Amino acid sequence: MSATFWIIAGCVVAIALLARRVPALHPYLEKESLAAFFVGVSSGFPYAMIGATLTTRLAQDGIDKKTVTAFTLAFLVYNLKVFWAWIVDGVRLPLIGRMGQRVSWMLVAGTMVIAAVVNLALVDPTADIAATATAAILVGIAGATFDIVIDAYRIETLKPEQLGVGSGMSQYGWRIGSAGAGALALVVAAKSGWSNAYLACAVFALPAMLTALVLGEPQRHREPTARKGLAEVWQSIAGPFAEFFQRSGAVLVLAFILVHKIGDTLANLTFRLLFDDLGFSNEEIALWDVGVGFWAYLIGIFIGGVAYARMGLKRSVLLALVLMCISNFSFAALAAAGHSNIGMAAAIGFENAASGFGGVVVVAYFSALCDLRFTAAQYALISAGASVIGRFVTGTTAGGMIEQMGYVSFYLLTTALAIPGILLFWWMSRTGLVDAAMGTAGGGKDGNAETLH
Known about the structure:
Blueprint: H1 2-21, H2 31-49, H3 52-60, H4 65-70, H5 76-79, H6 85-90, H7 101-122, H8 129-157, H9 163-192, H10 194-201, H11 206-215, H12 230-245, H13 250-259, H14 262-268, H15 271-277, H16 282-311, H17 313-337, H18 341-368, H19 375-405, H20 407-417, H21 419-431, H22 433-436
Helix pairs in contact: 1-9, 2-8, 2-9, 2-11, 3-15, 7-8, 7-10, 7-11, 9-10, 9-16, 13-19, 13-21, 14-19, 14-20, 16-17, 16-18, 17-18, 17-20, 17-21, 19-20
């Protein structure tokens, strides 16, 4: 626990010292930007608990690959959060609600996450796999609810001119929370077992909860004027769909959203199975996967920001898609090479740099697709569609495919699955559909923004 704490604290202190000497970095030290960072830390850790960390735990407990990959279905809960986001937005909690809509829900959702992670810590996969699956789903539900509150709190806390810096800080926080919790879990598990590892990681919910208590209710939050009826609730769910599909080329844009990340999602959710079968220890995984991957991801974010500014949206997104495709191929090479620390570092480094790059430019494109009247709902829908197929395929068939095809052929397949998304986006760019389907957030229709070429 102490090592992870000092890593996070060291990063914050280093940024603070550097920012004091570089005026351009001063916006990163504003309280709203720091708040975005800390809530991002808490947002990232529940995802890690049911992602790579749980995959490693199940694999080391001797659970078969089909069952292990089936647990990725717990991520599907994140794809459904749009259907109860209105509850967090409009239902005032009794008693604790006096602290404010966002603050009260932050405390409740954070407590839900802590309880769900503790519950996952106390189950034994070898004794009751069904109870473990239920516990993982509960973490997913609590984590998705936490995300809803965190996103709303971040957006309403940041001033309009801080949205760019704040979004970047949130992404950095998410990565630190995810990587920090994953590394802490591996280290504690190696010394005192997986139950203690999960119990230790529960503290990662605290940064967001403490941030809400210290800063209080966001100044830009507006309470609902009246309780919503059923008709208004239905409109809040159906309205964003209706507006999106009225656009030119909306069906093709949706097809791109659905298919562009299938191969990448399939590959990412099976990495820990590969590492375990190649004989990498927890310490090696923590060093190369979490350590090298962490810094490579941060570098990728920086390069992505520079590329987006210089190349524009279309070319930077196309480059991101190509890089993510190649990154899948690197794991086919690692699987063929076998246990190799250099090979693992190279594959992990390239994969995370590509993901960081894509995390800037692809998310920027998805944000530009939103209509400003439905920004939260449409972004939730788009982000859900971006991963739902890959997660479903991983949870239902990935383990069986690995057993039948082997790792090399499996990762070559994930590389091939990335190609349709590349070709579709290239064609959409050439025919003008990228611009035609743009939402007001990206300068489409009545929006005012510089051209995205």
